[in-house]
Amino acid sequence: MAVLSTVLTVLLSTVAAGSALSQRWLVDAVGLHRTTGIVAAVALGVAAHTLSSTLERVADALRNELVLTTDQALMQEVIGITAGIGTVEHMERPDYLNRLALLRGGAWAIAGSWTSALATVANTFSLLLSLWLLAAVHPALTLLVVATVPTLLAASRARQLAVAARDRVGEAVRRETALHDMFLQPEPAKEVWISGNGAQLDRLARAEWRRARSVEASAQLRGLVWQTAGWACYVAGLAAALWIGATLARHGRATPGDVMLIITLASMLGTQIAGAVGGLDNFAEAGRITEHYLWLQDYATARAGGIQPAPERLTTGIRLHGITFRYPGSATPVLQNIDLDLPAGSTVGLVGVNGAGKSTLVKLLCGFYHPDEGQITVNGTDLRDIDPAAWASRCSGTLQDFAKLQLLVRETVGIGDLNRLDDPAAVQSAIDAAGAHSVVAALPNGRDTQLGPVFNGAELSHGQWQKLALARGRMRQRPLLMVLDEPTAALDPQAEHELFQTFTAQARRAATETGAVIVLVSHRFSTVNLADHIVVLDDGTITERGTHQQLMDLGGHYARLYATQADAYR
Ligand SMILES: Nc1ncnc2c1ncn2[C@@H]1O[C@H](COP(=O)(O)OP(=O)(O)OP(=O)(O)O)[C@@H](O)[C@H]1O
User: Fold this and answer.
1) Rounded distance, CA 519 to CA 350, Å?
2) Which residue, 3, 62, 79, 102, is most buried by CB atoms nearer than 10 A?
3) What is the DSSP pairing of strand 517-521 with strand 533-538?
């Protein structure tokens, strides 16, 4: 497509000159009353016009297709690069998100860079051809090109102003999109509706948009002043060229056809310059966007993670050595000086009030984030040195903020282990293990039922979705780390207790094979006391640890909270 569109563009630039020549011949042939000349000039003009409009359409279609295809391939590559980053930390970093937004918004420029470069070359070629034809009438006419220099410089200045403004408003545009997206997605849209905050959110989004637009509009205005000044120079040059043409004709040194040629070519010069500069603009924009792309590549390479394989089984287990962690962009540590031993084959319960840091600890164990200080070791090897994908493939379980994947039931569950996605027995056994059998049995097509209203599928209750998420977490075979981070909030205490009981019983069986560590997070102490070791977190630090009995004997925070909950259920 690129080669064909190059050929067409070159052809088009010569056709433009052919059309100018036909006009000159026509005027001269009319003056000399030469019928054959008139017919030949008209035939050339008609042929040039027909050819140029046909070729232009074909070239346009080709260029669009080329840009679309490249744009699509580029987006796939960006997603691939992003997916290759070992942690999820970048998804919460404004610098990364701004770059990604600029890259996604400007991918068309990279995709169109070939056609932009081509437009510049072709228009420059047409420009040179026009100048050559003008020089044939009188060499002084080539000086018209001098008048184009300020135009080019002014256009370049205008471009710089626009690009700088776009980069400056990247974050405001992202905020506007995020706010307006709240109206378009079912979950936040419900909140917006019930809180009655729609108008206020819309106002905030519009304010962001106006702020961004005013910065960009002011840059555009300044660019326009530059461009107007540049074009004024060109118009002065054009007037001088016409004056030269008229003077030559008055002295009989140019035919009326020559004057016609000067008028046509000199006015075409403006379009050709605009085309060359426009192509250059887009090409430069592609350069700017490519910078973001390269930044993303470097970022991903720097965070590609380790290359060591995950161990076959845990021997010494998982250890946290002096872990301190802050979320991206935050100065306050969420976890501080955590030293914790999770022996192979052990079941560990994490308890603590809201915001104590339990889920954060789980996320660090899964490798979603790396600690700022200290290290997590797996059989003595730093988790940073282990291939993140390999470690992820040996982690299983269900997190607090599970996803409602609107697929077929068997896919929603099966993607917990892609290798066994098409194994009905494996999917069914995960469904049974999670206690989701009755949920699936009640659906019209069982495991083949489409889920979610977005694709006209069955809608489930929150608790039913949770059960499918739990089943998804049961798909992996031979995990080394199994987590259940409060995925059971929609279950009553008895149901949660039973679920944790079957989970720990099955997990313990699996643990004998791989030495897996099982981590349970719950606010319900009756559930957590199923664990061998219990760790109490408070404000990011470990305040108590031991078995249920040891902690009860200690009579501290755990014992007090346990007694309160037991009283409540009595
Ligand atoms: N993505 C994030 N970015 C910034 N801060 C976060 C993020 N997630 C959690 N935090 C902060 O980290 C602290 C610990 O959160 P975490 O979710 O680990 O607590 P938790 O003990 O699991 O609480 P809960 O019982 O409510 O689930 C909280 O103060 C929270 O504000």
Assistant:
1) 7
2) 102
3) unpaired
Q: Which of 44-58, 348-362, 507-521, 555-569 has the lowest mean pLDDT?
A: 555-569
Please give the distance, rounded to the nearest whole angstrom, from the Cα atom of residue 507 to the centre of ligand 1: 26
Q: Which tens digit of pLDDT belongs to each residue from 462-501?
A: 888 988 998 999 898 888 999 988 766 666 667 777 777 7
Is the distance from CB of 443 to CB of 409 less than 8 angstroms?
yes
Dihedral angle computed from the Cα positions of residues 243, 247, 252 and 257, in that order, rounded to the nearest 10 degrees: 0
Minimum CA distance residue for ligand 1 atom 2: 327
Structure-token pair, residue 191 = 């909140």
Burial of 182 (0-12, 13-18, 19+ CB in 10 A): middle
Distance from Cα 334 to the centre of ligand 1, integer Å: 7
In residues, how long is the chain?
570
Query: What pLDDT is attached to residue 514?
Result: 87
Residue 253: partners with Cβ closer than 8 Å, 6 or more residues away: 138
Distance 339 CA to ligand 1 centre (A): 19
Q: Which residue has the tokens 């259920």?
A: 569
CA distances (Å), origin 516, targets 415, 416, 448, 472, 527? 21, 17, 32, 18, 19
Domain with CATH 3.40.50.300 in the chain: 310-394+479-570
Strands 533-538 and 347-351: parallel
Say how far apart CA 180 and CA 163 lie, in whole Å: 25
pTM of the model: 0.74
- Radius of gyration of the CA atoms of the chain, in A: 35
Whose tokens are 């890259």? That residue is 103
Cα distances (angstroms) measured from residue 65 to each of 2, 3, 551:
10, 13, 68
Nearest CA owner, ligand 1 atom 12: 334
Q: Which of 350, 334, 366 is nearest to 523 (CA)?
A: 350
The CA–CA distances, whole Å, from 168 to 215, 286, 289, 294, 300 equal: 8, 17, 14, 19, 24
Q: Is the dihedral of CA 247, 252, 254, 260 positive or negative?
A: positive
Distances (CA, A) of 459 to 183, 187, 252, 453, 490: 20, 13, 87, 6, 16
Contact criterion met (CB below 8 Å) for 367 and 388: yes
- The domain defined by 310-394+479-570 folds into Rossmann fold (3.40.50)
Higher pLDDT, 345 or 569: 345
| Interatomic CA distance for residues 191 and 143, integer angstroms | 67
Is the C-beta atom of 91 inside 6 A of ligand 1? no
Q: How many angstroms separate the Cα of 273 from the Cα of each of 89, 136, 225?
A: 47, 20, 18
The single residue listed with the structure tokens 């006015």 is 267
**How far, in Å, is the centroid of ligand 1 from the Cα of 328?**
12
Per-residue pLDDT, 341: 94
C-alpha span between 253 and 138 (Å, rounded): 9
Distances (CA, A) of 412 to 16, 253, 450, 531: 59, 83, 9, 29
Strand partners, 563: none
State CA 494 to chain mean position distance: 43
> ipTM of this predicted complex?
0.96
Eight-state DSSP code of residue 373: E
